[in-house]
Amino acid sequence: MLDLTVTTQWHQRAEKFFLSGNYIQAANIYEEAIAAEPEIKVHYCYLGLMLLLLGQDAEARETWLLAVKEETSEQFEAFKAELFKTLQTEAERREALEEYSVAKKIRLILRELYPHDIHNLLNLVQIEIKLETYQGENLHNLGVIEILKSEPKVEVNLELLVKTLKSILDYAPAHPSTLDLVEVCLPHCQNNPSVLLIIVLSSVMEISYSQRLPMVAANLCELCLKLSPNNLEILASLSHFYQHAGQYKKGVEAGKLFYSLVQKLVSKVFASRLILGGLISSGGNWEESYSIHQRQKSLIEDLIKENPTNLDSRIVTTISYSSFFMPYLEDNARENRRIQNQLLQLCQININNYAQEQIEKYRQGNLQRRKYKKSNKKINIGYLSSCLRIHSVGWLARWLFEYRNQDKFNTTAYFINTNTKFDPLHEWYVKHVDKFYKSNNAFEIAEQIYQDEIDILVDLDSITIDAICEVVGRKPAPIQVTWLGWDASGSPAVDYFIADPYVLPEYAQEYYQEKIWRLPQTYIAVDGFEVSVPTIRREQLDIPSDAVVYFSGQRGFKRHPHTTRLQLKIIKEVPNSYFLIKGVSEEEGIKKFFEQLAEEEGVEFSKLRFLPIDSTEPIHRANLEIVDVVLDTYPYNGATTTLETLWMCIPIVTRVGEQFAARNSYTMMMNAGITEGIAWTDEEYVDWGVRLGKDEVLRQQIVWKLKQSRKTSPLWNGKQFTHDMENAYEQMWLRYLEEP
Fold first, then answer.
1. Distance in angstroms (rounded) separating the CA atoms of residues 585 and 233
2. Distance between CA 626 and CA 582 in Å, rounded?
3. Cα angle: 36, vertex 41, 43; to 5 degrees
4. Alpha carbons 54 and 63: distance in angstroms, whole number
5. Three-class SS string for 156-170?
6. Residues of the chain whose pLDDT is less than 50?
7. How many Å separate Cα 467 from the centre of its chain?
């Protein structure tokens, strides 16, 4: 409705035409009004507005100028204020109607009237975002940054300010001006810091993980610390983001400060895990990592003994993955599984307490559904993951979706922390399911799974992401399975863990909480990998063409110093050999780590080459062509990297252990028909490494066998693997239907 300061018959007559979009008739009435009452300035305001809406911008300006012709400066300012009020009311009406192009046009006129009106400018920024025409430069071009940091401090509506900030964080978090805006907002929020902190903290997780901009998220947290020093939530997030960005030293520093400030045992468990994550991921701080690892185990044991039952959901999610790094430090399957099982049992007890009503609803509902579910109906399969994108899990899981039996199964994907704007592989998954659902909220995901009547929920992430514990703990599906993304989670709400005859020893059920479901041949298979054009050659690395090239491409936290020593012993024993090292870690730290061990083992540091991370996975695979032998890691083997090695037909040496993570390469080699290179002791690991380096004929025989394996091996038969998985689903479902 029009905001009229003078109510006359002219405005009443014009209003109905104006609201119906008949601007010509409304303009005619205002022209009559001006002729009859030329001294009433508001008539000029509305006539100009009608002309503006008709696209007659020049005529609109002439009308407004006519109103103040020969007026005093005081009268001019009064009219300008009246015009601003009239246009602002109309801009707000258009925004409410979502007619943003019209609203933008009006607000640009308002900016001409009062260039420094911060509220109009903030609204203009929001309109640009709605129209998807916003660019980061807008904040400076409009003068928003300069006005907000001017002295004396401008009065600004805090609600509008943080609303605009939230819109910009969602739309353009990476632009430098976004950080500028947060910084100039700080003084305006000093009296009520929580308003800004809530907005920023609600955005940074999405920015770091879904949009994969961890340094932007870290910089935002650093700014928030200026407003709220030693804020525990910010420090914890900051430690995460720095580590996600590869800034491990800073991540450890933030984690240590966080640890020093917390008092509760449960918080110390979380903080200690943050510190350990940064130390071990850097690849070169193993001595301190061992120390923190022992402290972490002790803290977890104390927490299990304390057995708190009043933890909220946020705390539960943070402790669910507190033991994540244990398999990287020691191959102690029984002990690690005991701790993991007890830790997840504690999480489940708390979930049962605070989500009791939801859990009971799901239990009763699923029991009711079982009564009318018949075995000959389609089985509803749900896949839950944050990794169905450019990620190891994303590359490996494709065939299960490619070859799915649509006559027997309905397939729904539940995506966590996944932004479609940045990932073509994720788009592929979207197109290969019957339905999909996206959310970062565990309650919402669980409810959607239940409403979709999912029969078997397959968790691909285990404890590698905190939201998973929350979702599966509510048991929204009657059957819940863990596969691929890590070892079993240990959650009492998970029924089965998918394995095969090799990846777990025969006696493993003794220390697994979940029922181990062994597929007949392999727990993973692919049809192959995309391979690009190589970008490196031996001569570029100053390596002779007749040299023996060893390679290890793993993240820093897989480079256990004991196994690294074994690798260096191999290099020492094989003449004319070189060692290529690649993987995410702290560059200087990993070089110092290898330099020290090489000196201790008597290996010339000049025989080592440190390679940068390749821009894409297909290029990484192509660059493996210069490699003669791959040396696997232990106690945590490669998985995707081993599959890539075997697909590229390169001999590999692996050390087999007891835990799942120490047997990945073993099962893959067995399923590729290769036993050469499988070591059960440290001595065998070195022996195989030396033998493969010195015996070119043996290497050629393995290369030939691997090439032949592409035709017959279960490892390269995604279709048969999918059939085996779906056969397992059918058997699980039949067992469920037959339960009393």
1. 26
2. 14
3. 60
4. 14
5. CCHHHHHHHHHHHHH
6. 1-7
7. 11
